[in-house]
Every structure is written in C-alpha cells, then in structure tokens.
Give the backbone structure.
Amino acid sequence: MVKLTKIYTRTGDDGTTGLVDGSRAAKDAPRMAAIGDVDELNSSIGLAALHATGPMLTALRTIQNDLFDLGADLATPGDDFTPSDMVLRIVSAQVQRLEDEIDAMNADMAPLTSFILPGGNALAASLHMARTIARRAERTLVAARRDVAVNPEAQRYVNRLSDWLFVAARHANGQGADDILWVPGASR
C-alpha cells in the first residue's frame, strides 16, 4: 500500500527522479519521457471517463489502473519482466483483456467504409484524444527501448490500447453510426 504524507521531497531538484530500485534517472531520459506520456494518457482517460457510464466507465477505470501498473513497470529497471508481489509488470492477460473487449465492442459495428475524423459526441471525442496520446506514448516507449530494457508486454499493451480507444470511440458514436467520415479533398 502506498502512503504519502509529504508530497515534495526536494530530491528531484537536481533534475533527476527516483526509480523503483532506488536508482536515479534524468527527468528528460527516454524512460522518463515514456512514463510521462503514460501519465498523460491516464489523465486523458480520466477526462473521457467524465462522459462515460456503465460498462464503459468500468472499462476506463480498469485501464487507468493498468496504466499505473504500466508506469511502475517502466520505472523498474532490469530485464527480468516476471511479475511478483513486489514487482509490478504488465502481463499478457491484460493485453488479452483489451483484445477481447475490442472484439466485443466491434461485433455489432458495421465495417469502416472511410477513415473517420476524430470527434462526435463528448465521450467519443475524448476517447479519440486519448488514442492520439496512446500513440505518442507508444512512440516514446519504443524510443526508450534503445536505452533501457522494456517489458515487451508493456509495449503490446500500449499498442493494443490505442486500438481499444479507437473502437471505443466508434462504439460511443452510436456503434459507428454517428462517426464523422473523412471526405478526401472536400475543401479544395
């Protein structure tokens, strides 16, 4: 259980931040950029959740919890990605859950006949925004892999999450019926 009684520690005043194992990393290191993008993604999902109810709200809260697990995973140095009681790691079951939910949401939707513009109702627009942040988080996670070991399941999770957010946005737009279709060259 996490217990924080003091929010500021002054230990980051030198431009570094602490990792799970007690080591320090530069705040602008690729690992920290990935953690920051995952944090931003989590916040954007929190905004989307303001417009969600029922199963969608439950799914978004589960994803937010997963993203905290993902942040802990990324903040844990090393190349042993085996989870334990003391080490949080993203696992294949979390990726599989996203895939199962994508399939369930997609089951009743007509296939896409055009690219769609991000938007629609407030929930869909918020989910589209989260999707673009997920794509950025994936890019920074891939960049971090050049410097440090990254759990392959963590990368798969973020990739799948962007797909989940796309399908969830369509689902929120009346099962895709209210999607805004791209009309190539419409403003020429």
The mean pLDDT is 94. The CA atoms of residues 51 and 122 lie 7 Å apart. The beta strands are 16-18, 24-26, 116-117, 180-181.
